């Protein structure tokens, strides 16, 4: 792959473009899903789950749980792309195409029994399967105990023998998976995977793109590297460097997009704009860390700190807590409190919008003195 030419405007231009990629007008939910193709999930509600926070910034009048309600109507599938989330059925078929030949699996033992229960009952809640086969536990990845039948359901879903039919109060409902419709060959699926991840994370460091593709393409990782080069050669991907870091983005990506004036935005820790922590540090000059699983005494930002942008720059973070119908927020800054009335007005407006999304009102905004 030929060396990239330096991007005119360097890091500041890439940072502005990455932040401004959020703006394209608030869309209907279906339009936003069509544009994104994939939305990452995270179960922590502080004050809402990641998927709701991500769509709140892109969907007009989005309300808490709208994605869950529309899941079936939109024909979505839950599963793993580079991370776990909801994706379009076409994207799910692409993932199946890439993984099928290296993911042979025949359920045995409890998993086979669980599959039979689902086949007999149709859409099932994990409790139904547990009751049918008896309660038993297994050790989970965190050292605790989990339901063995629920673990078997997840295993069958991972191997695409089951699908997630929807959720009931956040709990997955399972049903038999329908074999995906015919898709293109693996080469075509690989090309789509590269373009999808490059578009979702644009502009994305070349190394980050390769890393995000590995869990999707698996045995095709070496071919994925060559595919990136071919897409750059054909003009479907563009590239440039800043401070020695090579970036790529789709040819349709607006590298000169601008952030609206006087606009503050609070993002989910897993929003595409902040998902790549290395890119975040390179573009905005500080290291954002997700600290939900960090001991409290070692946290700098907080349990569920939401990155805060103002005038296109990552200026700090916000911790939000919802108590009944009230939302309180604590705001922290990297380089000090932005001066002037503009910021205070912008952050108040943003928090009011967030509160409306979760069905609350703002009770307190705590700013550094």
Please describe the topology of this protein.
Elements: H1 10-20, H2 29-36, E1 38-40, H3 50-56, H4 66-70, E2 76-80, E3 84-88, H5 89-99, H6 109-121, H7 126-133, E4 137-139, E5 145-147, H8 148-158, E6 162-168, E7 171-176, H9 186-200, E8 204-205, H10 206-217, H11 221-234, E9 237-242, E10 245-250, E11 264-266, H12 277-284, E12 306-310, E13 313-323, E14 326-333, H13 341-357, E15 361-366
Parallel strand pairs: 14-15
Antiparallel strand pairs: 1-3, 2-3, 4-5, 6-7, 8-10, 9-10, 11-12, 12-13, 13-14
Helix pairs in contact: 5-9, 6-8, 7-8, 9-10
Pfam families: AlkZ-like (PF06224)
Protein name: Winged helix-turn-helix domain-containing protein
InterPro entries: AlkZ-like
């Amino acid at each position: 792959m030929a060396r990239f030419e330096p991007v005119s405007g360097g890091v500041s231009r890439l940072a502005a473009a990455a932040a401004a990629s959020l703006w394209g007008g608030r869309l209907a939910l279906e339009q936003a899903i069509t544009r994104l193709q994939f939305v990452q999930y995270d179960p922590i509600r502080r004050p809402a789950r990641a998927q709701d926070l991500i769509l709140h910034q892109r969907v007009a009048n989005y309300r808490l749980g709208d994605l869950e309600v529309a899941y079936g109507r939109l024909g979505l599938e839950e599963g793993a792309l580079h991370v776990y989330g909801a994706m379009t059925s076409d994207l799910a078929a692409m993932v199946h195409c890439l993984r099928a030949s290296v993911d042979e699996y025949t359920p045995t033992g409890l998993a086979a029994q669980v599959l039979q229960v689902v086949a007999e009952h149709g859409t099932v809640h994990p409790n139904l399967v547990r009751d049918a086969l008896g309660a038993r536990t297994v050790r989970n990845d965190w050292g605790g105990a989990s339901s063995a039948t629920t673990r078997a359901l997840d295993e069958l879903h991972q191997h695409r023998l089951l699908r997630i039919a929807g959720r009931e109060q956040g709990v997955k409902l399972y049903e038999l998976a329908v074999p995906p419709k015919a898709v293109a060959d693996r080469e075509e699926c690989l090309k789509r995977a590269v373009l999808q991840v490059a578009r979702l994370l644009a502009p994305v460091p070349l190394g980050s793109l390769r890393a995000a593709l590995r869990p999707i393409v698996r045995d095709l990782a070496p071919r994925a590297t060559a595919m990136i080069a071919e897409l750059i050669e054909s003009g479907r991907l563009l590239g440039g460097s800043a401070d020695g870091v090579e970036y790529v983005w789709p040819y349709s990506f607006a590298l000169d997009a601008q952030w609206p004036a006087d606009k503050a935005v609070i993002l989910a820790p897993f929003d595409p704009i902040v998902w790549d922590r290395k890119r975040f540090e390179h573009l905005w000059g500080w290291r954002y860390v997700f600290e939900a699983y960090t001991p409290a005494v070692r946290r700098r930002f907080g349990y569920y700190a939401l990155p805060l942008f103002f005038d296109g720059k990552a200026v700090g973070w916000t911790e939000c807590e919802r108590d009944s119908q009230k939302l309180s927020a604590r705001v922290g800054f990297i380089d000090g409190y932005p001066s002037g009335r503009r910021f205070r007005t912008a952050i108040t407006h943003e928090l009011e919008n967030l509160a409306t999304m979760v069905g609350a009102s703002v009770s307190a905004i705590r700013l550094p003195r």
